[in-house]
Amino acid sequence: MTHGSFRSAAASAALFPLMFPTSEVAAKVQLGKDKVGYTICHGIAPYFRNMLLSSLVNVSYLVVCFDEALNKVTQKQQMDALIRYWDAADDSVKTRYLTFCFMGHTCAEDLASAFRQAVEEIRGSKILQVSMDGPNVKFLRSLKEELRESDESHILDIESCGLHAINGAYKADHVASSWDLVSFLRSAYNLFKCVPARHADFVSL
Fold first, then answer.
1. What is the CATH number of the domain that holds 59?
2. Domain contains 24
3. What domain range includes position 201?
4. Fewest beta carbons within 10 Å, which of 9, 75, 158, 199?
5. Co-location of 143 and 201 in the same domain
6. Which residue from 121, 130, 56 is spatially nearest to 86, judged by alpha carbons?
7. Widest pairwise Cα distance in the chain
8. 128, 62 contact by CB (below 8 A)
9. Are residues 100 and 149 in the same domain?
């Protein structure tokens, strides 16, 4: 392993004519950073996707996370979908990239269509919660109705933006318990922030 950059791969193109001296294709090969990036993405990504889907077979429940943003290259809205699940083999929560979908508009119907496309290979009965970057009541309502119709409704009802709901619940518990947890959590954050050695020692405990 050399940890070379995409741009450094251009020099490797000179090796192909030596490896395949009778090939006209090898003699004309050029490796720019974009081509190397596309080759890695489209060549290796399916392997990791299939490996993820295989690991999800024995997972009872999972969380689907998605975020949509403008892809400046394609000038389209891009929905990125991730899967968060409990890995029994490692006794840890894992978050893995699943796929992406392009959209023109981002109204509730468009989000629902892209979401269905992104998770088409995942059983609906395994979806415990949907996490998104902002509240979208119409999208979540249509998703719940769709799951109920197929008798696969296990989704937790913590509104359309679970992060804010859980954060609000924690804040309410802090006040109700009278424990000074905020100071403790801030101290723990500052203790581990930008100190990988402390983080590694803590994880190894």
1. 3.30.420
2. no
3. 165-205
4. 75
5. no
6. 56
7. 78
8. yes
9. yes
Whether 127 and 201 share a structural domain? no
Q: What is the pLDDT, as a whole number, of residue 171?
A: 84
User: Is residue 11 a part of any domain in this protein?
Assistant: no
Q: Answer yes or no: is 6 within a domain.
A: no
pLDDT averaged over 10-residue windows placed end to end, the chain, 205 residues: 75 86 88 82 86 92 89 87 92 92 86 89 86 77 74 65 77 85 89 92 89
Stated as kind and residue range, the H or E segment containing 62 is strand 62-71
Dihedral class, residue 194 (left if φ above 0, else alpha if ψ from -120 to 50, else beta):
left
* Total domains present in the chain: 2
Of how many residues is the chain composed? 205
At 102, list the tokens: 């392009």
The span from the CA of 120 to the CA of 141, in Å, is 19
Do 141 and 198 sit in the same domain of this protein?
A: no
- Contacts of 106-109 with C-beta under 8 Å, sequence gap 24+, read 106/68, 106/77, 108/136, 108/138, 108/139, 108/142, 109/142
**Is residue 192 in a domain?**
yes
> How many other C-beta atoms lie within 10 A of the C-beta of residue 124?
16
For residue 170, what pLDDT is reported? 82
Q: Given this model, what pLDDT does residue 62 score?
A: 92
- Structure confidence at residue 185 (pLDDT): 87
Burial of 65 (0-12, 13-18, 19+ CB in 10 A): buried
143 plus 129 within the same structural domain: yes
pTM comes to: 0.69
Can you give the pLDDT at residue 80? 92
